[in-house]
Structure formats: C-alpha cells, structure tokens
Description:
By secondary structure, the chain is mostly helical.
Amino acid sequence: MTSTFSAQALPPPRKKHRTLAQGVVEHITGSIQQGVLKPGDKLPTESAIMEQHGVSRTVVREAISHLQAAGWAQTRHGIGTFVIERSNAGLAINAESIVTVLDVLAMLELRISMEAEAAWLAAARRSEAQVAELAKVLGAMQRSVARGSPAVDADVQFHLLIAQATGNRYFVDILSQLGTTIIPRARVNTPQLGHDDPVAYLERVNREHEDIFNAILRKDPEAARAAMRTHLSNSRERLRQAQQQLESNGA
C-alpha cells in the first residue's frame, strides 16, 4: 500500500510535527474512551479535523495512521475512517475473577507499581485540558463525600484520566478493562470490615486524591509518584487490616 505521506515532505521541526499529530490522536482516542465516538462511527473528514485542530493535512494523516496502528480505527478507501472495536484478548487479567478480599489485595499490589509510574508520567506530560478534567472529577468526589456517597464511578474516572494523561494507551487499556474492580470499596465494604466510620474513611481517601492532583497540577513527577504510591499503599493496608479482622472473626 502506498504511503499517504510519499508526496509531501514533513515540515520542520519534526518534534513539533509529532506533537501536533499526538494532540489529534489524544483528542480522538479520548472521545472514543468517553463514548462520544463508538465502534462503527465514522470519524470527521480530514478537512473537518484540520479546521477543528488548526493543523495541516499531513498532520491529520499521520494522526490517522497512528490510530490505525493502535487498533482504534480502520480506513475504508473511498468511504472514510471508522472507529473499530478493539480487542483486549491479549490481556490476561479477567475482571470477573477479582472476587475475594485477597484478590483485591493482589490487584492493589499490581496497581502500586503500575499507577505510581503512571502518575509520574502524567505529571510530566499532562495538558491543561487534562488538569481541568481531573479538577472537575475531584470536585465531584468531594461533593459525594459530603453526601456520604462512595463515589466509585468518579474514583474510577480519576484514575483513568491520570492514565490518559500519560499518553501511553496501555495504561488506559488495563484500567479500562478492570473497570470498577480497581476500586476496593466497589467489591468489598472496607469501612465496615475494618469497623471504620464510612465518612471518615472517604475523607481520608479524598485527601489522598487531592495530594495526587496537586502534584500533577504542579508538574512534579516525583511528588505525583509518591502520592499515588502512598494512596494505593494505604488502600492496601486498610484492606489488609480488614481482612485480618475478618479472619479473626471467623476463627
């Protein structure tokens, strides 16, 4: 197949060109992940994308090429480019297998290493728009805490937005597949198991989220990594203590 770029020289500087294309890719993949664009939907025309993002046709074509290579889209010649269903068959994690407290503890161990690094990358790479989205979700969680609501969906979205801010789709792939199973209280009643006050529990969790957000806001990768590690390690410790209490009661 003939390259769509063969007739045009790539404009200098190359780094800036890649950044423009990546911006288009992130916008389109974000729309897909948020359900604005669904499998089977046709992407806007090259001209429409050019106008929306203020970029050249070459940049748009490079962005489309990246989307195709990543399995987000497929071009049908003479018709257009369409969103396609991405396969997660290569991932070995089955969300439905995360059932017991021990399963959730094991998942937290994985997340500590994975999401601490994601937070580092997010702080280094995030855009102003991504920070604004994080602030919006953090506000939703704070309002939920005030109402005594567990805010599981907002919590999931907070972690997904951080994954998206890394610019690495594999972080997003794994967290998206796991869904609400990444939030311990979505599977087990951690405050109840640990004989903890639910509101105080949620307030502690929310303060940890604020620490992560503030580090990303400051573009401080090391602080973001440390805050995420602290947050997930605290979640693991709270759940471990709850599990011990559960085992003691059953002894």
